Amino acid sequence: MKQRYRLKLADGQGWEMVAAQGTEPWVQKLASIMHLERCEPNGCPKLIFMRARSDIDWWQDPVFGLTREVSEGLPCSGWKPQSLGVLQLWVHPDVPDVICWMGDGDDQDLDITRMWQSLFPFYQRAVESGGLPLHAGLVERNGAGVLLAANGGTGKSTCCRRIPSPWKALSDDMALIVVDTYQQYRAHPFPTWSDHLWNVQETTWDVQHHLPLSALFFLEQGEIDEVIPMGQGQASVLITESSGQVYQSILRYLTRDEERTIKEKIFDNASQLAKIIPAFKLRVSLHGRFWKEMERTLS
Q1: Considering the chain, what is the average pLDDT of its residues?
Q2: CATH code at position 156
Q3: Which end of the chain is more exposed for a tag (fewer CB within 10 A), N or C?
Q4: From the centroid of its chain, how far is CA 221?
């Protein structure tokens, strides 16, 4: 039996991540980073990881590079390639499954980058269902999730490290927002891939853990700690920018039509999110207690 790992999101969507064709150690590491457990075939859409075989024309018919066990139920032709640079995805109009070709070689930095980009189908499926991936840290207080969004180098990770109990930082760089069956927004923590890419630390994230989303704070550096309410229009723009940062490394590989479709859907979802979830500008000083301003705002 091939290694299979289950990912279940709060919107009810699930994925079965399947290690095929020499990718077992790689997928096992990815599953470990994301706290995913082994599973039996469960009927969820499959994200199948494979490497090339020299005895087949995998670039024309990727299914023929898979074993019969893994390829069962998959169409033999009609797959469309989508290059993301260091890996290639194959999608098909008739099935929700995705085949992910990992390339050859054993390069740790490339493998971490491939892990990062291999999550694109998860983000895309969430966006199609009204959700969004955001370049934001996820913190928890009293069972509710709060997002701290900012550009790189603005202090997002520092704020997540500084925030004290009873607050708890679940992620400091990435979060995935989904819409659950009750039409409520819930947030999942997702990995900070730079921790592994730059060998900062061997951090792991429980990506299946999720919280009801209660607020978004967009960080700015300031002389004093201060929360400033934000209108829906400004919030829509900033949420769109935050999600666009997640897609930035991927968009250049898409066609203009694909890029336009994704950007339009992201903006629509961001506008809807801004109507429901309050958003604020959070000015953070170097040594202040910014979380006290957040608590006063949320009380």
Answers
A1: 91
A2: 3.90.228.20
A3: C
A4: 26
Give me 79's structure tokens. Answer: 């797959």
Average pLDDT, integer, range 215-224 = 96
Calpha distance 141→165 (Å, rounded): 9
pLDDT of residue 105: 64
Q: Which domain holds residue 269?
A: 132-298
pLDDT at position 89 is 93
3-state DSSP call for residue 194? helix
Separation between Cα atoms, residue 206 and residue 97, nearest integer Å: 23
Please list, in sequence order, all residues whose beta carbon lies within 8 angstroms of the beta carbon of residue 268, skipping any fewer than 6 positions away.
Answer: none
Residues 6+ apart with CB under 8 A from 258: none
Residue 297 Cα distances to 180, 220, 227, 234, 237, angstroms: 25, 17, 7, 18, 22
Q: Which candidate, 233, 208, 230, 232, places its Cα nearest to that of 219? A: 230
264 shares a domain with 184 = yes
Q: Cβ distance 75 to 95 under 8 Å? A: yes
**What is the per-residue pLDDT for 53?**
60
pLDDT tier, 2 (very low <50, low <70, confident <90, very high otherwise): confident
Q: What is the CA radius of gyration of the chain?
A: 20
Q: Is residue 124 part of a domain?
A: no
Residue 284 pLDDT > 80, yes or no? yes
Q: Give all strands (DSSP E) within 159-295, no chain letters.
A: 168-171, 174-179, 185-190, 211-221, 226-229, 279-284
